[in-house]
Amino acid sequence: MKSLFTIFKYIKKYPRLLVSYFGFNILSAIFGVISLGLLSPFLMLIFKQGDVFKAASGSGFFNSINPVNYFKEWLYKVINEPGGNIKALLVICVVVFASILLKNLFAYMSMYFLNPIRNRILNDMRSNMYAKILQLPIGYFSEQRKGDIMSKLSNDLGDVEGSTVSVLESMFREPITIILFFAYMVILSPQLTLFLVIFLPIAGFILGRIGRSLKKQNKNVLEQYGKLFSTIEETLGGIRIIKAFNAEKKIQRKFEDENEAMYNMKNRANRRRDLASPVSEALGVTAVLCILWYGGRLVLSGDPSFTLNAGDFLAYIAIFTQLIQPLKSLSSASYNIQKGAASIERIENLINENVGIKELPGAKELKTFSDSIELKNVSFSYEDTVILKDINLTIQKGKTIALVGSSGAGKSTLADLIPRFIDAGQGEVLIDGENIKNYTLHSIRNQMGIVTQEAILFNDTIAGNIALAKDNATEEEIKNAAKIANAASFIDTKEEGYQTNIGDRGMKLSGGERQRMTIARAVLKNPPILILDEATSALDTESERLVQDAINNLMNNRTSIVIAHRLSTIRHADEIIVLRKGEIVERGTHDSLITQNGFYKRLVDMQEVK
Question: Which one in 52, 56, 409, 472 has a CA-CA gap of 20 to 30 Å to 234?
């Protein structure tokens, strides 16, 4: 039921659509009852039992509220006229035809309003999931499989559409049909209906026992989907390495093992689900046979307490047979809800995931950067591992600070503190003397440009990628940014120029071209603070020179934090911060650190030897 509450949370946003859907469903069910209720006078007329119409109203509460009885009385008057039988038959056929026509018209109108409700629910879920992905801290994605996140956006949503949302029709329409049909059955014969009330809970208990484990089985299927997506994503990203190490068979075996596990899990889940329809149908047929035996026995015995005539009894059977399909749909719906519950649970877990990096109420805008960035007694740990310990650092506006050290020394973690990708465990980060937690995230990051070691580009045009950080950037601004980043020369050689699509992750460009594109993107943003995370370490010598020239152009008159892999690129930094095991062990200019003959000099010597 929790999954239905989640769906209702989305549905309530669209009350007009919901009211329209309910209204047309009720009208469709009413005319469905009328069309079946008229079966009784039709049969009585055909079998020449028209005299029964005279006493149709009878006595008692249920007879008095049966609308068909009033129609029977009117038919009795028509029958007694010359040619009345033919006229009565024509009237019955016209009324039944009109009822069926209206029933189906209103059924279509109900579906007309249900479709936008279903699609809105899925759209809202998808939008909420995507928005949450954009809000989650960077650390979340290092802990979670990307394939599992993709599975939630595709398979889990597909399951919600194919199970929980698709049964909205059953959950809303069928109860209305069942209530109206059941009410008319009570009017026709309280005795037979009481018999059904005793039988149906037994059938429901049997169906409930069968479907109890379906949610757990489907959750296992969805988790396995996540593993499959992760394997596929890793294969696509690492296809070059797989081929280089002749690992195709090994990777294929891994995929086939996971695929086979998926096959077995889905078989078990689907077999349990598929029990719903035949079991519910068998129970429905059993109920019909019981009614035929019990009701037929009362009719044949002439029991005076049983006031149902033969025509009404057959109409009662017809109505009950029409009740079997809604009951069967509800039964299948309960199975599908159990199946979709696992998907909704996984989707809700993502949507409700703790963001971690939150803005304080009333956070203010950082409109300009005018003085300095300061880290005071900053420490950061991940689980039980200390990454940074008691860092004290001041970066004056316009200065270039380089962060160096071995892998795992904490360079990238320190840089991530400044745009608030992560928050310090202890201490504080200040911009212009104010704790950055007092500023809005958007305004902090609006003051910064970041160029990373891996050139992150999107499957878009060159112009689209450069203009990522600036809405409504003009063509002239984009071209000027490319020129400063030394990218204009290779862009101009492209047949479509700035409108050239660069492919998935920019794979149509070389490594140096991709990196110059990211620098052009930072140039266009024109931020006062730059964070350069080993931006040239993955390039060849020629590309490195072009990219380094572009970086030098970018760094002019800006405050720069440079994470350096190649120490030759940071000789002219205003201050070099040497990190080792999360602590600052040395600091100073290149020349002063060489003179100290410490850890920094050993790093320089090792690179020169190479």
Answer: 409
